[in-house]
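Exercise 3.2. Students should predict the tertiary structure of the chain below and write it as structure tokens, then compare their answer with the key that follows.

Predict this chain's 3D structure.
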Amino acid sequence: MNNSNKKYLIALDLDGTLLNDEKTISPLNKKVLTYLESLGHLIVLCSGRALRSVTFYHELLGLKNSPVIAYNGHLVINTHDNNFPKVSYLLNKDTVISIYKELNENDLITCGMSESLTTIYCDDPEDYFLFAFYDTKNMVVKQGLLNKNICEDLYTCVFRYDESARKQEQIQKVVDKHNDVNVRFRYGGNYCELYIKDVSKARAISHVASYYGIDQDNIITFGDSDNDKEMLRDFKNSYLMKNGNPTLKPYAHNITSYTNSDDGVAIELIKFFNLEI
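Answer key:
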């Protein structure tokens, strides 16, 4: 069967998935994705990164039709379509302040960062990971204790901690005191993030698919880390990257034959759509 004859939504995580270890998109990945868009398929970048960062890669690929999913599904927007129903979920500032204050005062975290679309709040501007990930360009940066500076609801909140199972348990207990949020721990690193309960990449993908009239069976997803769990679980054409978190294998329906640095995404799409590239 030639899958190219159906319209598919292809949802792609960035870090550890579409991006190689140098944080770039390989020529083959770009060639395959732009070709599939030319056939009428919808290519959707779906990341925990900030909107400006996801948009950068969207423009780098030259995608012309699709929305982008940022902040792990807290924001979904399509600048190419004024009729697209924007999705926007914001973390309550009082919840973020309360959690940060307790974690910080009990030495459970070593750094905190949160942001809206215009402002970054941070207590350690030297954290390379956070600022490589969230990019301060064209943003107001307010440095200092988050509980002193935050004055608005937020799209994301990330903490750095001294990695240990015990620290994770203690952080989880603090977050569990609040009914509106949960915490997710980053695979392979000592960072965790707050997110609104029931908000996920999978929910955002379903929103996009519904608007464009794409059947759930015609959704393909690629991911590698804990924030991809729902979209690996909920769609039958899901792929965990070969380099991905091995604890996610029970949730994924497929595993790529190659890693993110070896064109893992492109190779699976070439096979799926029987492309001659």
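Discussion points: The first helix runs from residue 14 to 18. The mean pLDDT is 94.
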